[in-house]
Amino acid sequence: MLDALEFCGFNSAFDLIKNHFTQDELMDLLSDLLHENKEIANEIVEEIATEHYEWVDYDKVRADFEDMKYQEFKDRGLDE
User: Whole-model pTM above 0.85?
Assistant: First the structure.
């Protein structure tokens, strides 16, 4: 891929695609990529929800708290 990019005068696939795709084609590509990779889509949704809507992932908060308490329990056992 690097050879083709350099031959065409581009440094990255993003630059080449952005230069040659219309706005509609870019949106279709984004849609396809997000549907193929649910993990990235989830990360983006959670980031936007947190930043713009003050959403809190209470399951993660609860899990982090339980992990912290378990670690404290383990640490206490090692100190005794």
Answer: no
